[in-house]
Amino acid sequence: APAAPSGGAPPAGPATLEARDITAWFGSHQVLDRVSLTMPASGITALIGPSGCGKSTFLRILNRMHELVPSAALAGEVLLDGDDIYDPQRKLTDARRAIGMVFQKPNPFPAMSIRENVVAGLRLTGTRLGRSAKEELVEECLVRGGLWNEVKDRLDSPGGGLSGGQQQRLCIARSLAIKPRVLLMDEPCSALDPTSTRVIEETMKDLARQVTIVIVTHNMQQAARVSDTCAFFLASQGTPGVIVEHGDTEAMFSSPRDQRTSDYVNGRFG
Ligand SMILES: Nc1ncnc2c1ncn2[C@@H]1O[C@H](COP(=O)(O)OP(=O)(O)OP(=O)(O)O)[C@@H](O)[C@H]1O
């Protein structure tokens, strides 16, 4: 298990995330219909499916970002190791802290140093660290994010000076600094070249033992390479998105049970 930062949050290992009967709307437009999915602790779950079928909406529901959209509404439950993250007794920030997010476009604070980028999230969670604890945390997170060797001699340089792939790994390191139990990744490699993509995929595999990962990807090869389990979303002809099939990734790619899954993973549509 990863060490807790001294003076920081208590250690919290990877958690199972379970979505139950998730239905979602933007205004009167229903985009998901009773979607249920268990994302096992320490595993990598890939969400795949054609554009517009609700994968990103589903992902954003998993850490309460959906509700940031004024017209958005939601029914169903999301359980983090059995605890409902939408329980009115629980603070919104608890859910966002336990369930981190990495976006499509790397978004480090460009003028802030690499070191300060890594610890930028701590302020939001009210964590105060002494100088040496902070240094340890910066190194630990950059190592886990697969970036340490490339930046250890220039931690005071601006985050904006890194390559796109390095910036994305910096964002991963920044997410890890607040010790999430789940890391959500919304097409994290779509803005990156193939080499940087492979480095991120390796980083994800290294992280999987320490944090549960859920990734949205359009790249079938990527889903096959990195994920343990996979869920295929589909919204046919203006109907809300549903999960057509989910399960073990290898089985879904080699012998899908549903013809629509077979067509999609073999590139026949979407
Ligand atoms: N902020 C929003 N306001 C209104 N409608 C939205 C909003 N975000 C998404 N939608 C709609 O919800 C549906 C699902 O979108 P979503 O982005 O979740 O799909 P997706 O499967 O992630 O697509 P993509 O793969 O293209 O990112 C689409 O019809 C989209 O137009």
Provide the CATH top-level class of the domain at 17-107 and 185-265: Alpha Beta
Rounded to an integer, what's the Rg over CA atoms? Answer: 18 Å
Order of helices and strands: EEEHEEHEHHHHHEHEHEEHH
End-to-end Cα distance? 39 Å
Number of helices: 11
Binned, the helix content reads: 25-40%
The secondary structure category is alpha/beta
Main sheet record: 6 strands, mixed
Query: Under CATH, the topology of the domain at 17-107 and 185-265 is which?
Result: Rossmann fold
General shape = globular
Low-pLDDT stretches are 1-8
CATH architecture of the domain at 17-107 and 185-265: 3-Layer(aba) Sandwich
Pfam families: ABC_tran
Keywords: ATP-binding, Nucleotide-binding, Signal, Translocase, Transport
Protein name: Phosphate ABC transporter ATP-binding protein
Domain ABC transporter: 17-265
